[in-house]
Structure to design on (101 residues):
């Protein structure tokens, strides 16, 4: 859906705007995502529905990926930083709560 790697500057510009307090974004279980009106989308030929879908977080879809992440992390054993394991557990918890709504 996204037009390509060369357009990723638009996401980086949003991040800079956010750091400088010029963008708020929307809180989701996976973190803050841009609001459509905060992105620099000039010159893109994307339908509003496409933009909306790009910015939507589906908790059930994300939850389906969690077992693969746990398996990947398990490969590192005791060498995996505790902060990464904690973040994954927090993400899983937030996604589960969001999927129950």
């Amino acid at each position: 859906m996204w037009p390509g790697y060369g357009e990723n500057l638009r996401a980086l510009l949003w991040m800079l705007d956010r750091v400088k307090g010029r963008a708020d974004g929307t809180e989701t279980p996976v973190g803050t995502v841009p609001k459509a009106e905060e992105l620099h989308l000039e010159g893109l030929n994307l339908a509003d529905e496409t933009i909306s879908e790009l910015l939507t977080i589906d908790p059930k879809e994300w939850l389906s990926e969690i077992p693969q992440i746990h398996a990947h992390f398990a490969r590192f054993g005791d060498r995996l930083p505790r902060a990464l394991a904690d973040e994954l557990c927090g993400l899983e918890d937030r996604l589960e709560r969001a999927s129950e709504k």
About this structure: The first helix runs from residue 9 to 19. The mean pLDDT is 94.
